[in-house]
Design brief:
The complex is a heterodimer of chains A (224) and B (243).
Chain A (H helix, E strand, L loop, with lengths): L5 H12 L2 H28 L2 H16 L2 H15 L8 H27 L2 H9 L4 H31 L11 H12 L2 H30 L6
Chain B lengths: L1 E10 L2 E11 L4 E5 L6 H8 L7 E6 L2 E4 L5 H8 L2 E4 L11 H11 L5 H14 L15 H14 L4 E5 L7 H16 L4 E4 L3 H7 L2 E6 L2 E6 L1 H6 L4 H10 L1
Parallel strand pairs in B: 3-8, 3-9, 6-7, 7-8
Antiparallel strand pairs in B: 1-2, 1-4, 4-5, 9-10
Helix pairs in contact in B: 3-4, 3-5, 4-5, 5-6
Classes of the chains: A mainly alpha (224), B alpha/beta (243).
Chain lengths: 224, 243
């Protein structure tokens, strides 16, 4: 048992902090894209558009049924070999794409469940005032479903932030990749990975504060 | 003029509407009474396709909809000519009282926001809830919610207002204020089709009372005739039971 090299750890913090923006940017981009894709798929699963429905079911099944790491390798190392247009794909893009598709499959199911949980009377009232199906979804049903789905969706975002660490396997120097390089130079693996673990932890905890804020905001119509 | 002919509907093989014929004159206020499960609510819900009728036609003004083969566009057009007040209020839970009224004016009728808001504020004053404009449904009493529900329907300026047992879900203390508001709507000669168990109210505001049983119209006429001199034995039976 040797003593921790505290000075080394403190010195590493500012270095790794420099990579936080990239990690957050990848997660945020994937989250926004996944939310859009998941909402579209969730609405489709509820209204069931004939041929499209089978495709969406297959998509969700595949992206939930295979590991994220396998999907990332498939996009980054595999696809360019068969689709020449993708030969220029960089690691960051591939990681965002992988995270988007992977998490949109999970999020679609959460959002679908939340949509189905919206009281029948809300659908009927929307129809009775003459709304189209799209207006009903956008104005009444989805906003109410969002409140129910929010805690789960934030959990997926947290998972996504941690998931960005896999981008280092695609050659992206993000927080994890930078830590790996630093550790390889100093041989202080324990110190290096401990620092990066704590950094991820702090980011996620900070996000939990945001989560509470979001939930209060979405719940304001329902407070008595 | 609203003309309903041969309207039928079944649920799981049971005929709930067994061919309803009904014409409603502009400004006419009709109250439908009858035992539970006789298709009164289903009739109302079929008129705006919340329940899809199987056969028959519904004519509102110059538009005739064939119930069996109604297209999406026809259903939408029909809904936009009618307004519906629900038993359970069914206010938009994510909208304030004021937004509940402006929502369809802006989203469906494409009115400018300022105009919709002015209309909503006028209606909120009329229904006595101006100070609750910014409240969400969860913060309103049952009576207040139903008044907003009626206000939302009033704002649509529909050719026909449908009321599906608007006081049945209310605590007794709130029934009076909702009936008062409906009386005021009736005084404006809004065409109304009301399902209710409030017999005194029916006698007071109805131009015509319809007694329904077993998915059919059994008897209809002015309130004095239905309540004081019912011709059909089933009507007499029903009225004796509800006292």
């Amino acid at each position: 048992m040797r003593a921790l090299d505290i000075d080394y750890m403190l010195g590493l913090v500012p270095v790794l902090l420099g990579y936080v923006p990239l990690t957050l940017a990848m997660a945020a981009a994937a989250m926004v894209l996944a939310l859009v894709l998941a909402s579209l798929m969730a609405v489709e699963r509820v209204v069931k558009i004939p041929v499209l429905d089978s495709f969406v079911k297959l998509f969700i099944s595949f992206f939930r049924g295979t590991p994220l790491l396998v999907q990332l390798f498939l996009f980054y190392y595999g696809l360019p070999q068969v689709v020449s247009a993708l030969s220029q794909i960089n690691g960051v893009t591939a990681a965002i794409m992988g995270l988007t598709l992977h998490f949109s499959a999970y999020m679609a199911e959460s959002i679908r469940a939340a949509i189905l949980g919206v009281d029948r009377s809300q659908w009927e009232a929307s129809q009775a005032v003459g709304m189209t199906q799209g207006q009903m979804m956008a104005r009444i049903v989805l906003p109410q479903a969002a409140r129910v789905a929010a805690p789960t969706l934030v959990n997926y975002f947290i998972d996504m932030i941690k998931g960005t660490s896999l981008a280092f396997t695609l050659g992206v120097t993000e927080m994890m990749g930078a830590t790996q390089k630093e550790a390889a130079g100093s041989f202080l693996y324990f110190e290096a990975f401990l620092v990066v673990a704590v950094l991820y932890w702090i980011i996620v905890e900070a996000l939990s504060l945001v989560q509470r804020g979001v939930e209060t905001r979405l719940g304001k119509a329902f407070a008595r | 003029m609203i003309e309903i002919t041969g309207l039928t509907k079944s649920f799981g093989g049971a005929k709930v509407l067994a061919g309803i014929d009904l014409s409603i004159a502009p400004g006419e206020r009709i109250v439908i009474i009858g035992p539970s499960g006789t298709g009164k609510s289903t009739l109302l819900r079929c008129l705006n396709f919340l329940d899809r009728p199987e056969a028959g036609t519904i004519r509102v003004g110059d538009m005739t909809v064939d119930a069996g083969g109604a297209s999406k566009a026809e259903i939408l057009a029909l809904r936009r000519r009618t307004a519906f007040v629900f038993q359970n209020y069914a206010l938009f839970a994510n909208k304030t009282a004021r937004q509940n009224i402006t929502e369809a004016l802006v989203t469906v009728q494409k009115k400018p926001r300022a105009e919709a808001e002015a209309r909503a504020d006028a209606i909120l004053r009329e229904i006595g809830l101006a100070e609750k404009a910014g409240s969400y449904p969860a913060a309103l009493s049952g009576g207040q919610q139903q008044r907003v529900g009626i206000g939302r329907a009033m704002a649509l300026d529909a050719e026909l207002m449908l009321f599906d047992e608007p006081t049945s879900a209310l605590d007794p203390e709130w029934v009076g204020e909702v009936l008062d508001l409906m009386r005021r709507v009736a005084q404006e000669r809004q065409t109304m089709l009301i399902v209710t168990h409030e017999m005194q109210f029916a006698r007071e505001i109805a131009d015509r009372v319809i007694f329904m049983e077993g998915g059919r119209i059994v008897e209809q006429g002015p309130p004095a005739q239905i309540f004081d001199a019912p011709r059909d034995a089933r009507t007499r039976d029903f009225l004796r039971r509800v006292g």
